[in-house]
Amino acid sequence: MRHTANSRTITLIVVGLTYLFIGAGIFSAIERQNEIESSKELFGYENHFRTLYNISDADFENLTYVIMGLQPHKAGVQWSFVGSLYFAITVVTTIGYGHAVPQTTTGKLACIAYAVLGIPLCLVMFQAMGDRMNNSAKSMLKSAGRKLGFKFDEISHKCLIPFGILSCCVTVAVGSVAFSHFEGWSYLNSVYYCVMTLSTIGFGDYVALQADGALQQRPQYVAFSFIYILIGLTVIGAFLNLVILRLI
Predict the structure, then answer these.
(1) Residue 205: how many CB atoms within 10 A of its CB?
(2) Maximum distance among all Cα pairs of the chain, rounded to whole angstroms
(3) What do the Gene Ontology cellular component annotations say (predicted)?
(4) Which CATH class is domain 76-245?
(5) Is residue 155 helix, strand or coil?
(6) Which residues contact 96 (CB under 8 A, 6 or more apart)?
(7) 185/208 Cα distance (integer angstroms)
(8) Residue-wise over 138-171: b if at least 16 C-beta within 10 A, else e?
(9) Which of 54, 79, 128, 133 has the smallest number of Cβ neighbours within 10 A?
(10) Domain map of the chain by residue range?
């Protein structure tokens, strides 16, 4: 038994590392040339503006600092109660877009303490909600089966996996349509945003509620975004519970 467990662990480690190296090769092949071209273009613009306006190195660095610093403020007030709630959601769910970050020493210390306590609490909460969702799905499938004349003594976790996959796909599809509408993104970029958000990767290149002062001026959209993140993470958590139970 111990030998089997050790072999399985070693196999998973090898597969995981192999997957990482494959990913590195794929993304390097896809993105490297674009990075080189974009870098060349941007440095060309930099040299053009430096020459055109006779900007010194120090002034250009200061200008860059100001432009980058202003970026979050263009979206409106980030640290209102609603904006802070958005930030808190991204902390405890580990999404961490980076659209708003604490700047004060007190804020950074508070964020550390809040994350240390909130992340485990959030994980337990989503696991419990995911279990309830899976149990509800079992009951629904049993009820539907009885109405169709089938009898089920018990529905296995394996049988729920297709239901979980469908739930994840529907969740991403609904969110993609909504964010494409509200944010004006292409459908592909909206799918990308939803997957990056619900997988808690949260790169931050696409962040909802950052245009036209949406946090202050579009309360219905704010409510939808918050609820979508929480429900979406529950759906993903329920599916992952099924997969983990299947693999154990």
Answers:
(1) 11
(2) 82
(3) plasma membrane
(4) mainly alpha
(5) coil
(6) 90, 200, 202, 204
(7) 10
(8) beebbeeeeeeeeeeeebebeebeebbeebbeeb
(9) 54
(10) 1-55, 76-245
